Amino acid sequence: MERRVLARVAGRLLPLLGLLYVIAYIDRSNVGFAKLELQDELGVGATAFTLGQVFFFTAYALLEVPSNLMLHKVGAHRWIARILFTWGLVTIATCLVQTTWQFYLARFALGAAEAGFFPGVLYYLSRWFPGSHRGRAIGAFMLAAPVSFIIGNPVMGALMDLHGTWGLDGWQWVFLATGVPAVLVSPLVLALLPAGPENVTWLSGQEKQWLARALDADRAGAGDQPHRTLGVLRDRRVLTAAVFFLAFPLSTYGLSFWLPTIIDGFGDLTTTQVGFVSAIPYVCVAVGLVVVPRLVARRDTPYLWTAVMLALTVAGFTVAALFSSPVVQMLGLCAAAVGGYAAQPAFWALIPRFLTGAAAAAGIAAVNAVGNLGGGFGPLGIAAVVDSTGSALTGLLFLLAVAVLGLLAVPLLRRALTAEPSVSADSVATATASQERQSA
């Protein structure tokens, strides 16, 4: 029963959700390729251009929790379709920017439009997969991230080579072509993504009962929940997880944003060739996202493997920063990318162990909101180093320092997440029966 139900759920949900994540990640990484032309066209330095990432992730962070609570209220299918439609329109409109402040405004609007997508999907998966299987489900979903780079980077490199076609610059082709898929796929989400297990016809009554019992056992094991949903924002476990998660977006977004620039410095490469070469680390990431969640689940060792992957990231950035050979640098970048991504399914599976229902929706969003500020400040930190040294590779030292801090903080994360909640008695009072039913 367990294998049959979870295989059916995974087969119905994960391909569609993975497709959406591919579109989302291509939409986030497109600015790294557009930078190759747009920065010069705007006439700004690396730091000023990268400030656009700060605007994006600031809007994203501010609206994460409200967006996830709306998803909990109106249904994942409706809200995720809205997110896709609006972010697609904003991306398309970005090809019209002419000044630096128009670029900043476009990035801020994109962050506002996309806010809640990733944590919304994580919360949605927690309503379908019991805790013992959640890490592998998240890993399968996150497998779409490296796939997006493997597919998207060569495509965006080719789009940049369309410079002048139909009177559009290469960077305009990048934003136009990466925005259209999000708009087109939004009706499919409304039609194909079920609101919850109780609404589907492809599970029998007996299968729904088994799944409901498994998820109820998870909720019971999570313990008392905040009486008020936003009470999770005062929970020491949530705050610790949010600060710890900073290490991942700082390293992964910093790497993805600057990777085309680093590879462009390898030699005389066209932008299409840069796109193909920059896809190589994400082939390795795809393997890591398949293997590592299985190793975590085998002995339930999420903290151990989080530390191992962060150590791999430290080693990878060290090699890439210290050696001058492009081949050796690529090996280091591959290791750093695997470590930064493959640890995340284990980390995200920890949150629903102590939060459920609307509290889980708010908690996951809060962790992702604070952590994803690193998605803006990571590239900005690299840019500051690059502007001062003139070398894109020296910017990796910033990411190396971040990875070291994350590795050292793993024992603190374990201690915080296995301790009792630190919020007040009022905020952790057991909800009434009606509130429990609503959260469930």
Task: Name a few traits of the molecule.
single chain, 440 residues, mainly alpha, 0% strand, globular
Provide structural commentary.
With 440 residues, this protein is mostly helical. Helix content is 78%, strand content 0%. It contains 19 helices and no strands. Helix 1 crosses helix 11, helix 2 runs parallel beside helix 5 and helix 11 packs antiparallel against helix 15. It is globular and about 60 Å long. The two termini are 22 Å apart. The relative contact order is 0.15. The C terminus is likely disordered.
Number of helices in the DSSP assignment: 19
What structural category do the secondary elements indicate? mainly alpha
How far do the termini sit from each other?
22 Å
Biggest sheet character: none
Residues in β-strands, percent: under 5%
C-alpha geometry: globular
Layout of secondary structure:
Elements: H1 2-42, H2 46-74, H3 76-94, H4 100-114, H5 117-126, H6 131-142, H7 144-160, H8 170-192, H9 205-222, H10 236-245, H11 247-264, H12 271-278, H13 280-299, H14 302-322, H15 326-342, H16 344-348, H17 357-389, H18 396-417, H19 433-439
Short description, anyone?
The chain is mainly alpha-helical and about 450 residues long. It has helices spanning about 1-40, 45-75, 75-95, 100-115, 115-125, 130-140, 145-160, 170-190, 205-220, 235-245, 245-265, 270-280, 280-300, 300-320, 325-340, 345-350, 355-390, 395-415, 435-440.
